[in-house]
Design brief:
Length: 370
């Protein structure tokens, strides 16, 4: 591995609910091992969030958890929410009351979700292998602190006993420019092609996105090509010909939807990691970030040693890359995951009905290949 001066890495670990703690228990030893091998030290403390926060502290994002996140260089997040808390008022639900405030508090405006399916693993995709002869290699850059998620919301009774609910989609030029810059930097490390996904035939915000992204790329990145696509067409093109995509740039809600589609095309939701990068720098002069699997808490399989830990493990790799600049260490983890899956050690979600291993065994197999 490349030489780096020894770093002291401090992270806040927030496992969350249902499968969250199970997959986190797999990711941490892998992270510790790769850091120890390259001479870095890891300090981590574990904190309640989501339903666990509600049950033990009366709120989804306890003050002590937020304080620990502030004191850390990055957050390694599991997943939150589930049927146990579904009867709470919407604003108190684990997802809305923990993950969204964390994104807002740390200004985590850039969500990076790599959709990578290696050629030798195309059998894990629900797509026909002849649609993806060379595998898939795309990345979703999703704006994460604007749009419908954070615009003004309200519900009220109106005339005639009817009820009206409002969500507002708001975007500013500055918000679009800064996420475009992330897409440009990402594209430059790849095939230099950005597809902007929007609904510019209907939405004002999309018209602004097209204008700002187009101008920005023309001004600062003439080496990058830009295609634009409506969201409905993009959802279709992704399953028809995923290889046409390199960097997919899009607003918050569209990115939420497309990134799940991209994840499953690349094998399973259980394989897709995600980095949410902030405006602030950590003590290492790198972006502060939150790293989490994209897949959710999977209450139906929780506690059964069935969940796929790969997305959590790969999220730790993204953390090393983005928040600590440890590219070789990130690659070491990614390669160990790839070789594990390629040697046909797989959890049920990517085993296609074939023999499957459990969460812990999958973790041990990855650890053994580091
Ligand atoms: C995601 C999740 C979240 C989102 C939920 C849990 C609020 O689906 O990270 O994609 O919609 O952003
Ligand atoms: Mg989502």
């Amino acid at each position: 591995m490349a030489y780096h001066p020894a770093m002291n890495i401090t992270i806040a670990v927030l496992p969350g609910d249902y499968i969250g703690p199970e997959v986190m228990a797999v990711a941490l030893p892998i992270l510790e091992t790769v850091l120890r091998k390259s001479g870095h030290t890891l300090e981590h403390s574990t904190h309640d969030v989501g339903g666990a926060g509600i049950d033990r502290h009366g709120k989804a994002l306890p003050d002590s958890t937020l304080a620990a996140c502030r004191a850390a260089d990055a957050i390694l997040f599991g997943s939150v929410g589930g049927p146990k808390w579904e009867k709470l008022p919407p604003q108190e639900q684990p997802e809305r009351a923990s993950l969204l405030p964390l994104r807002k508090h740390f200004r985590l405006f850039a969500n990076v979700r790599p959709g990578l399916l290696l050629k030798n693993l195309v059998d894990t995709s629900p797509l026909r292998p002849d649609r993806i002869p060379d595998g898939v290699d795309m990345v979703c850059i999703r704006e994460l602190t604007g749009g419908l998620y954070f615009g003004a919301k309200s519900t009220r009774e109106i005339e005639g006993g009817d009820i009206e609910a409002i969500d507002t989609m708001v975007y500013r030029r500055s918000e679009i420019e800064r996420i475009t810059d992330v897409a440009i930097a990402t594209a430059r490390a790849r095939r230099r092609h950005i597809t902007l996904v929007d609904k510019a035939n209907v939405l004002e915000t999309s018209v602004l996105w097209r204008k700002v992204v187009g101008e920005r790329i023309k001004a600062v990145a003439p080496d990058v090509t830009l295609a634009t696509m409506y969201i409905d067409n993009a959802a279709m093109q992704l399953v028809l010909r995923p290889s046409q995509f390199d960097v997919v740039l899009t607003e918050n809600m569209f990115g939420d939807i497309l990134s799940d589609e991209m994840a499953v095309i690349c094998g399973s939701l259980g394989m897709m990691a995600s980095a949410s990068l902030g405006l602030d720098e950590n003590r290492h002069g790198r972006p502060y970030g939150l790293y989490e699997p994209s897949g959710g808490t999977a209450p139906d399989i929780a506690g059964q040693d069935k969940a796929n830990p790969c997305a959590q493990v790969l999220s730790a790799a993204l953390m090393l890359r983005h928040s600590f600049g440890l590219e070789a260490e990130a690659r070491a983890i990614e390669s160990a995951v790839e070789r594990t899956v390629a040697s046909w050690i797989r959890t049920a979600d990517i085993a296609g009905g074939g023999p499957a291993v459990g969460t812990r065994a999958m973790g041990e197999a990855i650890l053994a290949r580091l």
